[in-house]
Amino acid sequence: MLELRLVQGSLLKKVLESIKDLVNDANFDCSATGFSLQAMDSSHVALVALLLRSEGFEHYRCDRNISMGMNLTNMSKMLKCAGNDDIITIKADDGSDTVTFMFESPTQDKISDFEMKLMDIDSEHLGIPEAEYHAIVKMPSSEFARICKDLSGIGDTVVISVTKEGVKFSTRGDIGTANIVCRQNTTVDKPEEATVIDMNEPVSLTFALRYMNSFTKATTLSNTVTISLSSELPVVVEYKIAEMGYIRFYLAPKIEEDEDETKPEV
Amino acid sequence: MLELRLVQGSLLKKVLESIKDLVNDANFDCSATGFSLQAMDSSHVALVALLLRSEGFEHYRCDRNISMGMNLTNMSKMLKCAGNDDIITIKADDGSDTVTFMFESPTQDKISDFEMKLMDIDSEHLGIPEAEYHAIVKMPSSEFARICKDLSGIGDTVVISVTKEGVKFSTRGDIGTANIVCRQNTTVDKPEEATVIDMNEPVSLTFALRYMNSFTKATTLSNTVTISLSSELPVVVEYKIAEMGYIRFYLAPKIEEDEDETKPEV
Amino acid sequence: MLELRLVQGSLLKKVLESIKDLVNDANFDCSATGFSLQAMDSSHVALVALLLRSEGFEHYRCDRNISMGMNLTNMSKMLKCAGNDDIITIKADDGSDTVTFMFESPTQDKISDFEMKLMDIDSEHLGIPEAEYHAIVKMPSSEFARICKDLSGIGDTVVISVTKEGVKFSTRGDIGTANIVCRQNTTVDKPEEATVIDMNEPVSLTFALRYMNSFTKATTLSNTVTISLSSELPVVVEYKIAEMGYIRFYLAPKIEEDEDETKPEV
């Protein structure tokens, strides 16, 4: 028996909107610790890891560990029917091949239950070791989203270069080149507006903008984003989910085929 | 000679937006009582009845009963040119094959007149007898619109079931099932937020969601909607037009081909 | 060496949005006087003239007159990456085949530079003589935009007729006819809401609505528009750019093939 009651149901709606375009089908894993998901995107390039800790739920009952395979498009269709102020409860009976989403309006005048068929999905759970990163950039999530969107109007890839002074996002395409520099800046009125750089050594890595843009769909979940970079590791783009957990996106850097920086990257 | 002056011209704009997708061509009937329309939708499944009473007009002159055939798409194109605060006057000379819509801006600085060709439309006027209904549900129109929209993401038909406690909207489709229950609720701050159920006997009827969704285009006309249900009659979905009349949509229930409720309806 | 620093960078963004759909490629001419452009639309029917005077820039350095050929779609893609509060600097080195747009956020935390390739564009600069017009209409730019949009739902051309009392915009199409009269009105609370007619002799001219609608993309640049009409000259539709200059659109009137006004224009 599984019953998870989330007062701030809009969080779950936002989580689905963040990942449904990247991942088609995925197993949600439920244990005493929390409700989590780990999935590769459909082209097996990027990895998503979601965690919603059990403490973040108003009520959390999970008698035994289960893994529920869901089609994220269908799940998103159902969650879209929840109001933004609704309480969402996820329910599943032991051995059942369905999951139920219950939505309660704040006034309790409207109660909806949506039952969805579960799927069998083959998936291997990758262990993601804790790692040391050369540089960690924390910045406003809306700023990062804007930069990825702007650069994708010019080119296909972004070079992210971190120095002590700031982080530079660069691209080049048929119509020209673009460089956007965000300076370290901690003297802001609101902490979520700060750009903070924690660097051990300078790093410069290239990524596909298409994926970066997809990750920024999680911007609604958090005011800030943390980008962890290391030359030997996939980048981690992390959005914290207030008091509950996180969504993390992992993406391997592109290998530069040509060291000559003056030539255009294709 | 016909001359109808409507100070709140935006009402007529909203009326057209409510019905133009459902009905292509229709006769507007003008008499001493008011300005009215009755028309089947293009697939002859749903019926629309509109009444704007003469008292609701600032000036209402209709020397003799006339019926004016109009293409609603074209009429809508013209009414879209009226500002939301404009006064609209409908004018037609006896025997003329055109109608004129005059728009006056509140400051009288801008006066527009749009002349549209009338059409000959065959139509039979159905007498709609006053009827007794098993159950009448009055609820916020935006809530009803939201429910119809949400359910159409899951299935094609909606089962509306009324009991003393509340009204249940259900659907099922390939991806699962959905039930939304709105409880009777009269202790609200604003009367238009109440859900009021007036029931003689329980009723459960099935309707095509496509039509229900089309009817909810009238949501802009009224804060509340009244749904009148009876097992032998078409449902009536009524939107009152403040101090002037109403738009009513009639739709016959779908006959269940299979009594076995566990089987999906196709 | 060219370096033009525009504190209100959003002006340049709006200028590009105003003309990029009308003109594909154009030469921007830079001299001690200012930054200007003159270009025919791609079908060689309408002419655009832009002037941004040097005094309007915070810093204006132009060592020698140069003409920079730009693809306006690409330029617009780059300028879209500037924030609305950003300072924009246009830079070009002598003899360089690129131009650089630099965007500085108000807090100076984010500095972007976009480099775009220049093009060789054949163009002849037309001398546009100062002319006397039969009638000059000054009216709210949003009102003019609304009228052009509304009429294009009915017909393809607009007849603009000016008398001392007001200006009339008329069209006719398959579904009927439309006439919109804006009366001269100078007793308004805000001067930008006035409709002022300066007339030497009545004039009535026909124009393609498609172009008029395109011109109204400049509505964001100014609260008012000035329409200068003369039977022997192209109409001038002018939007002033506050304290800097203007955008002017020129369009030749359509010749009426038939003097009989009762016949429809095709």
From TrEMBL, chains A, B, C:
Gene3D superfamilies: 3.70.10.10
Domain of life, source organism: Eukaryota
Pfam families in alphabetical order: PCNA_C, PCNA_N
Subcellular location, record wording: Nucleus
CDD domains the record matches: PCNA (cd00577)
InterPro entries: DNA_clamp_sf, Pr_cel_nuc_antig, Pr_cel_nuc_antig_C, Pr_cel_nuc_antig_CS, Pr_cel_nuc_antig_N
Alphabetically ordered keywords of this record: DNA replication, DNA-binding, Nucleus
Domain (Proliferating cell nuclear antigen PCNA C-terminal): residue spans on this chain: 127-254
Domain Proliferating cell nuclear antigen PCNA N-terminal: 1-125
PANTHER family: PROLIFERATING CELL NUCLEAR ANTIGEN
Family as reported in the entry's similarity comment: Belongs to the PCNA family.
Entry function: This protein is an auxiliary protein of DNA polymerase delta and is involved in the control of eukaryotic DNA replication by increasing the polymerase's processivity during elongation of the leading strand.
Name of the featured protein: DNA sliding clamp PCNA
